[in-house]
Amino acid sequence: MVLDLFAGPGGWSVPLHRWGIREVGLEWDAWACRTRAAAGLLTIRTDIAQYPTWVFTGRVVGLIASPPCQAWSMAGKRLGLLDQPLVHRAVADLAAGRDTRASLLAACRDERSLLAAEPMRYLHALHQSGEPEWVAMEEVPHVLPLWKQYAEVLRTWGFSVWTGILNAADYGVPQTRRRAILLASRTRTAAPPPPTHAAVAEPETLFGPVRDRWVSMAEALGWGATDRPVPTVCAGGGPGGGPEPFPSGSRKALADARDRGTWTARRDSGLVLASRNEGSGWAERHGTRENRPADAPAPTFTAEAHRWSWSLRSNNQSNATVRPVSEPTGTLFFGHRANECVWEANAGDGGAVESIRITAAEAGLLQTFPAAYPWQGTKGAQFSQIGNAVPPRLAVHLLAPHVGRTLTRDDLTLAA
Predict the structure, then answer these.
(1) Is the preceding omega at residue 132 within 30 degrees of 0, hence cis?
(2) How are beta strands 160-167 and 178-185 bridged, if at all?
(3) Rounded to 10 degrees, what is the CA torsion of 409, 412, 415, 416?
(4) Is residue 108 among the annotated active site residues?
(5) Which residue among 105, 206, 259, 279 is least crowded, i.e. fewest CB within 10 A of its CB?
(6) Which residues lie within the region annotated Disordered (predicted)?
């Protein structure tokens, strides 16, 4: 089997399940476990720090680990950075067969910090029986020094190991989500998967496959397609031409407009995304705002009096990044009120701004989960699951070499 620690709602599991590979996920969150059950994924609900490792020995071909990132993430208090020396000590002790977690946990400022050392407890136990064959781990970029410590240990156990930072957008995820990755194997040379996408599409060459342009929000959400148009906003009012652009918080208004709206190309307005920590002016720095393709989707307007643009604001901070729909989102954060995502309709020139909260289905698509993924729980629980998950399309690229899978177009269209 493949053992998936901190399995969440199934970001790693989606490709494994599709490929018919047996995976067992360990997860504590009740709603994530219910989502996994609804998706047909085998799950043990447990506290990973307390679960015995011996039950898996002799059975594991691959180990996956994505420890909770809240203690280390830019979206949280980042107490994990202060606890990092304690986590390094825990990893070193566990690699030597010494369990000092109880005393180290008492000294941690965030009790979640030490969870990043748990994969080593499982790896040490499995190593005694020559397992696993391969390892794949993912976390926020600040955890990279810890992954390098893991790599040093794994190399002494006969693994080839690669660690580094990968941008999910380079692998077809409509999100510039940077993550620290560890890949290790006993049977092959560990290396990062070749990127399939780039900020600018590459011309064909004689030296290998070209990279497509980063997948945009519009592509991921199907906006601009005939079967799922984005709303047409009429000058002077809402979708029906009424006095208000959109009733505050009205998801129904957006849905009704979407049913009868269309998209056409305009260079002076667009659907844009406000993201958390990458700062305003991202598009200008990358030269994409002025050089937007002429066929980039944007709302259709029935008159020149009002020019509406749509934004996805992922927090209430003043430095939120604003990107047009022809680009990927920034990293999506959920689970805190400051990171609540809303679509904003902005009239420009100091006009009104109306907000409509993003749906879990939309957020799931931006994270490359299948369109009909069976999210369970309250809205807050669903958003938390999505924000913490590994994008399945990134997982496809990371896992395929380990399981001997040659990727096909079907593998790369998980959201279909």
Answers:
(1) yes
(2) antiparallel
(3) 0
(4) no
(5) 206
(6) 276-298
State whether residue 27 is helix, strand or coil.
Answer: strand
Identity of the residue numbered 55:
V
pLDDT score of 327: 82
Q: Which residues contact residue 305 at a Cβ distance below 8 angstroms, ignoring those fewer than 6 apart?
A: 235, 236
Distances (CA, A) of 106 to 113, 151, 396: 11, 26, 38
Q: Rounded to the nearest 5°, which phi and psi values hold at 255? A: -65, -45
CA angle 329, 334, 338 (to 5 degrees): 95
Does the global pTM surpass 0.90? no
Of 323, 318, 326, nearest in space to 298 by CA: 326
Length of the chain: 416
3-state secondary structure of 184: strand
Distance between CA atoms of residues 356 and 342, nearest Å: 5
Q: How far apart are CA 179 and CA 166, in angstroms?
A: 6
Catalytic residue among 33, 69, 108, 341: 69
Residue 308 structure tokens: 């509406």
Nearest to 188 by CA among 149, 163, 159: 159
Instruction: List helix spans (H) across 237-300.
Output: 251-260, 282-285
DSSP string over 296-333: -EEE-BSSSS---EEEEE-SS-TT-EEEETTS-B----
pLDDT in tens, 345-398: 655 555 555 667 778 888 899 999 999 999 999 988 998 899 899 999 999 999
Q: Which residues contact 126 (CB under 8 A, 6 or more apart)?
A: 53, 56, 57, 60, 63, 132
Beta pairing, strands 342-346 & 309-313: antiparallel
**pLDDT tens for residues 298-352?**
333 233 323 445 556 656 666 666 666 778 887 876 655 545 666 666 555 555 5
